[in-house]
Amino acid sequence: MEYKKDPDKIQQLNDMQKKVTQKDGTEPPFKNEYWDNKAQGIYVDVVSGEPLFSSSHKYDSGTGWPSFYETIDKSFIVERSDWKLFSRRTEVRSKHGDSHLGHVFPDGPNPTGLRYCINSAALRFIPKDEMEQEGYAQYLELFDQKNEAD
Prior knowledge:
3 helices; globular
């Protein structure tokens, strides 16, 4: 699958998705699509389709945004220093879509100690039972590994 920034896809985004992904915005906490989603599946970049996060790594951080302790594949993530709120934070962007996703903080749970605090508006959720038909079958093993560890 080829991942790229798609101008046609950007035109189809709603106002909040454009604000977040293209203008480095932030959506309201607790009033976004995925903050409390508990379904199994993966989260991909709403612009490029890059696979970013798995429900297997999602947890309730209490912040009101989807939070994950790791990415599916770090090669799809770009981290940048962000000084917008007068202190250093680490911004997280998708590599090919160049979408602003959110930030990563060093206060997450084990095993990584990280908290990827991500805007729902930057994501599209693909349920586990639709992953194969959507072209993400190789990531189904994320759920087998979790089940083996249980």
